């Protein structure tokens, strides 16, 4: 994030929405996937456990979470690209709290590390494989 667009991140960022609004948003997402006629499996959501979320938020200086959308390219030859959500803690200045990169390539990508112990959360459970009975 450039300094010209950097804004403080309040710890109460976000807004709760109604079930109706959630249903509209998730239906739009499902419809878009259906219209694309994609062969990839449709991931509706990804679930992360409370303990892992709290562990991210308990990092020193954390005031929020940022969720990055990612795509794991086919690694086992089945031709399937796996949609991912990667969660990181964010400080009040809006900077991601990240571990120190282990290689020079990450340093050159513009990623700033905050601490050696910082954590990045991935490997949530995808829906529809892990869905409850009640969902939009």
Write structural notes for this entry.
23% of the residues lie in helices and 23% in strands. It has 136 residues and is α+β, with helices and mostly antiparallel strands. Strands 2, 3, 4 and 5 form a 4-stranded antiparallel beta sheet that branches. A two-stranded antiparallel sheet has the order 1-6. β3 (82-91) and β4 form a beta hairpin. The chain starts with 18 loop residues before the first helix and ends in a 9-residue tail after the last strand. The mean pLDDT is 75.
What is the general shape? globular
- Number-wise, the strands total 6
Quaternary status: single chain
Helix content: 10-25%
Radius of gyration: 17 Å
Mean pLDDT: 75
Largest sheet features: 4 strands, antiparallel
Q: What portion of the residues fall into strands of 2 or more residues?
A: 15-25%
Q: Structural class per helix/strand content?
A: alpha+beta
Question: How many helices?
Answer: 3
Descriptive terms for the model:
alpha+beta; 136 residues
What's the short story on this structure?
The chain is of the alpha+beta class and 136 residues long. It has three helices and six strands; from the N terminus they run H-E-H-E-E-E-H-E-E.
Describe how the helices and strands are arranged:
Layout: H1 19-36, E1 45-47, H2 50-57, E2 62-72, E3 82-91, E4 96-97, H3 104-108, E5 120-121, E6 125-127
Antiparallel strand pairs: 1-6, 2-3, 3-4, 3-5
């Amino acid at each position: 994030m450039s300094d010209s667009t950097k804004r403080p991140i309040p710890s109460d960022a976000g807004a709760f929405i109604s079930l109706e609004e959630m249903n509209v948003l998730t239906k739009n997402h499902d419809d878009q996937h259906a219209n694309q006629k994609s062969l990839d499996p449709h991931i509706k959501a990804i679930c992360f456990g409370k303990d892992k979320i709290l562990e991210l938020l308990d990092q020193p200086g954390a005031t929020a979470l940022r969720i990055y959308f990612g795509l794991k390219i086919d690694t086992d030859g089945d031709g399937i690209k796996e949609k991912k959500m990667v969660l990181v803690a964010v400080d009040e200045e809006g900077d991601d709290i990240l571990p120190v990169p282990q290689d020079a390539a990450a340093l050159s990508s513009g990623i700033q590390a905050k601490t050696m112990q910082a954590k990045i959360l991935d490997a949530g459970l995808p829906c529809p494989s892990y869905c409850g009975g009640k969902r939009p």
